[in-house]
Request: fold
Amino acid sequence: MEPEWLEPASLGDALALRAERDDATVVAGGTFVGILVNQGLLAPTAFLSLGRVPDLAFVRADDELRLGAMTTHRAVELSPVVRERWPALAETFGVVASPRVRNRATVGGVLGDADYASDPPAMLAALGARVVARSAGGEREIPAEDLIVGYYETSLGSGELIVEVRVPGGEHRATYRKFRTRSHEDRPCVGVAVCRRPDGLRVVVGAVADRPQYFPELCDPDADPAAVGRAYAEAIDPIADVSGSSDYRRRVIAVEVRRALEALAA
Amino acid sequence: MTDPRVTGSARYAEDLELPGMLHARVVRSLYPHARILGVEGSRVPSSCVVLGPDDVRELGRYGCQIQDQTVLAVDRARFVGDPVAAVAAPTLREADEAALSVDVDYEELPAVYDAVEAAAPGAPLVHDAAVAGGAAAYFAMRPQPGTNVCHRFRIRHGDVEAGFAEADVVVERTYRTAGAQHAHMEPHACVARWDSDLLELWTGTQTPFNVREDLARVFGVAEDRIRLVSPPMGGAFGAKTFVRVEAIAAALARKAGRPVKLVLPRSEEWQTLNRHPATIVVRLGARSDGTLIAKQITCYADTGAYADCGPGVAQKMGFSAPGPYRIPNVSVDAFCVYTNLPPNGAFRGYGQMQSTWASERAMDELADALGIDPLDLRLQNVLREGERYCTGETLHDVRFAECLEAAAEAIGWREGRRGKGLSLVMKGMQTPSRAAIVVEAGDDGGYVLRCATAEMGQGARHAISLLAAELLGVEPESIRFPDPDTSLVPYDTRTTSSRSTYMMGRALVEAVRDLRESGGRRGLGEVRDEGGLDPDTGQGVASTHWHQGAAAAVVDVDTETGLIAVSRLHTSTYAGRVVNRPGAELQTEGSMIMGLGTALFEEVVQLDGQVTNANLSDYPIPAFADIPVQLTHDLLEREGAEIHGLGETALPPVPPAIGNAVASLGIDLADLPMKPEAVLAAIEARQGAVA
Reply:
């Protein structure tokens, strides 16, 4: 049967449909959902497209950065204000797949998919971003590190949609290291996001487990980078996939966390 | 002239729509090896047509070299993806649903996934009995009864054991190469229609006459009752050779009484044809002064569940494995082995990459053991003009040394060898082979070329049109070159093995001569190259025309993560005479980039016979950002030389050039792709050896 294509033209209608139709898969840019459908891994009875909902694609900056859920990766990558004030974030969105994908894939989509091998979730968590989830009943903020809870699983409620992501401003240094074992357009084997602020350090490792790996107790801002790398490598129980075995990932985590911290110090 | 591929006006087989046409889907085996107990289509809606084993049981078998394939698996499925049924429906969506509602009962059988294991006595047999050789087999088959070996090829030259006895240094190692997917942009696509007893097919194929021959046998009709048109293809690289989707589409169309279109979804490409994984054992001996004295090679080519052109691939892997060197004692045993994996077949160079990887890595290992510079070792032993190959044939227009020296020069070999690697390739062309072309004068002062050379993006038609324009003294724009149509063009062996510009170019010269001699309206030209090898001794003519080339690479290795970065890649290929320079350059660059993917990361991964990365996200191919900052090449020419084919030559030497560059850093790898994990393991092995 042909799946139903729901295409609300307002956020209100989208939230109402989201509450009513828990059989509907939300579609933003479609780059991830499209792959799952083509591979036969997903065959929902309905799609809820956000493509016609107005005012969800924006980049606004004051004290903090606000990215609309339908903002494309490419828009974040090329935004002058993001490049100037949150350069590591622009860089992270800029290393995802290819320009063809980045022109479609969205900020809300990459978070909502909760794919373990995406780049931006780790960086957003390291930057201390909050994800704004709205439902017919209101709005709440979810710390980025608490959004993804397992493979393709989020802490969003059944009636909630991601509408915005808020990234704190203020003094910080951050970097993202995407380690690929195959093509440059491949997903990461290990992705390391680090951010140092006056009040502390955050190290988040992506693509190595069901969700981005963040261990606040291991993020001693004064520790030796190599020691933090080793501690992360020990703390994580890495997965194995076509990009690398579990043992290999563990070795790379130690190296890449150290290198990321060294890059910040440089 | 605007290229129709750029404007979007090019029409591929997939674009063809016929009135009343149905859309097809294939139902594929979920098991690597299973008895088919029943195929049940009663849940399929009546608007759809189901093709099951009983519809094809009485049809003939096909197979370009061994007739081991039925239109659908009849009693046994032999790999995950083996077609067990097919459906046709008014829309693709209905076809998808119909395919899901076909029920198949299986009883699992033991399976085997490795060619070396499969060749051993006692392995589960993929086919119970050896089957007859196919029409496109251009050599005698040597199946080994009671085993999975469907063809064995040997070279016996000199006395290899006596040679090793005289050697001062002998190196021996087993090399492995992974399976790969062609990843042609346009999937396999075919439209079939029956008009009473005439079968018409529009299919993206490199081998229109071979497909026609096989289909005539399947349907029990005369070849002239089949008309096959080959529209331009969006890439092929060997994947669109021989019968792929045509037999199923034609059988469905016959049962439906309506035209049927079958276009493969991307994931099914990995279940349709891949490149042969290979295991190659090389033993190579030399005197202490570097003179090669003996070489023994054992190759296992994993051809998957059906032979396809695997016997030819294994044979070519075998006859090219000695390499372009003067070696008095050579022994080769090459085995084409069935396994319960998807079929493997032609892949831009037909076994050549696999044997070049093993052979050229072995040369560097030997150089290392002898303490001789790898360039000097090669130059000391390389075949020169007029020398004989181990097959007994004399080589002409030999340019290996020039290719190698040019490649070495390009990367500054003499200024320091660290991080640098070289390799050399000697690649045969389809032999024996035939080509023919008709040139017709049009009323408008232009000419029409009628031949079976297929366009798959390689630019063969453009190159042949340029040659025709030059011979006929007209502008290239006044040459027309319609899609090959077997009812209108003379027989040609096929568009493979970098043969078209060379073979069809020579036929064209004859056709233009005939046109002039016969009054200027129509000319026919035909060329035939004879040859072939004795499968038991490897003596004869392996190739009437050898492709010659060298590659050079500069690499850096991240010793903490094992990542290889190729900063410079260069190939030097003997072109003889360049016909279409931009086309020749693009073919060369495309080959190099494909070689880079093979070297570093391309690999068909399977688990219990199931391909686990059958999509372009889990199976990446090189992207622009993967291309070395310096990717360069030379096309060597010689005044008065023949045209040399260029479509594949620059691929096989790339992986060993990179492997040898990595080895120059003390990191010794034997398997492709050179994964970072293997690099780390090799570094540890070296540290272990030092400690």
User: Anything to note?
Assistant: The first strand of chain B starts at residue 22 and ends at 28.
